[in-house]
Design goal:
Elements (H helix, E strand, L loop, with lengths): L1 H27 L5 H17 L9 H25 L15 H12 L9 H4 L2 H31 L8 H26 L10 E4 L5 E4 L4 H10 L20 H25 L3 H28 L2 H5 L17 H14 L14 H13 L8 H21 L4 E2 L2 E2 L2 H29 L10 H15 L14 H30 L16 H34 L1
Antiparallel strand pairs: 1-2, 3-4
Amino acid sequence: MDILQIVIVIAVLGLLVKPLGTYVYHVFSNESNWTDRIFSRVERIIYALIGLKKREGMTWKTYALSVIAANVVLVAIGYVLLRIQGGLLLNPSGNANMESTLSFNTIISFMTNTNLQHYSGESGVTYLTQMAVITMMMFTSAATGFSVAVAFVRGITSKGRTIGNFFEDFVKGHVRIFLPISFLMTLVLVALQVPQTLDPTLVVTTLQGVTQHIPMGPVASLETIKHIGTNGGGFFGVNSAHPFENPSGITNVLEILMMWALPASLPYMFGRFARNRKQGWVIFSAMMALFLVFVSLTYFSEKAGSPAMNAIGIDVSQGSMEGKEVRFGIAQSALFTAVTTAATTGSVNNMHDTLTPLGGIAPLAQMMLNCVFGGKGVGLMNMLMYAMLGVFLCGLMVGRTPEFLGRKIEPREMKLIAIAILAHPLIILAPTAIAFMTELGKGSISNPNFHGITQVLYEYTSSAANNGSGFEGLADNTPFWNITTGLVMFFGRYISMIAMLAVAGSLVRKTHVPETIGTFRTDNALFTGILVGTVLLIGALTFLPVIALGPVAEYLTLR
């Protein structure tokens, strides 16, 4: 029954890929289609308000600067609101102003779509900042990521000379994708008993006669964009393990599909842009193959239970249920864990810190690879980056100039791809080493052995991959952790984003090369295997040693 649950959810996802991918293609194709009749009037009003009279195409530099400028404005507004939230309206719990380094970490976290929280949601922010800062940035950061991904796809597939207009893409992402889907799913979650209210905390009397104050608030609206936008920040400290955020198995499946469906549909969208749907299915197949390996590792590791518990005779017939909700069990906990790190969402319905050592490798590895579906388009961009790298390596083997989608991959593109590939492990491994050199013995790292290595490594991997989930066990609300993870989130978001836009800007200017008998095909099963192999090879070369020091070493000590 457990495996059947997982298979059914994956099957439903498969049914959603084509219609959603087609819809996203229509939204961003800049060609007249049926979505214009529904949304164009609203968009014209917004364009008039922001002064966007001519929606001309941008160069990659202008596009990147527009992304950064828009993000800077939103960061400034959000930071100020967090710093003064204690004196503003809609603060029924009387929460105080947020401390400066925590405000810095929080605003960077939500602007970069990471949603790492060094505070507990119900006590760290007010109703106003939950809506005006946290929820607002869940929309804007998701739309920003989608816009950049679409611009990148245009650059490598278009025969024109532009990658699009950021502000037009940004508005369309909100109006045609995130707002309508979030509105509908909010109504569904409310119908399934997820709270949506501005009332103060609920006061109840327990069976023991004690008065208890239960935090509530506008939970359902945050919960939908949290998953649809692959954000992950929780209204409550325990995130989607809380019964108000995720009350049943039905809501659990819905939340899995919400955070998985859009990222999984983007490869199909890419195939539509490339005028070759096989190209999209190759990317999707590579992502799904990797995902199935990792979800299987998590499920079977958790189902087998902890070797230490097995050795002392504890009943583990249900598997390792430590840190998991009984209403979800092993199957839905393992699937949620795999999806939330594959889609870089960061929402959790169980405590990852309590996963078995091998079960904990899967979420860690997916964030290190950062291309297994991914969120907001980052997975698609990174997988296409690996596709170009795979084509380049194959070209070197046969002595032919590599081509991808009719454009030559030359030194400039490979240098930019190398920057994106090398930056990711650098901003993970360097801060991890610094943390152990400076923080060990100060009390913030609660577990100084192999598990402690995994905790610190997970914190920075989650930050760099803009995931936001935590292994916990760290006393991370300190200036050191707030500042270092804030910087890692910033660099993890914008270095690769700018590098990929530069690649798109370079390729869009190149003359299309006609396909010949010697052209290396990238739309068949062979290239799917090459793509998976390239991802695993690069991942193993960069991260296998540190994984051996953490979860692998912990697993061996428990045998």
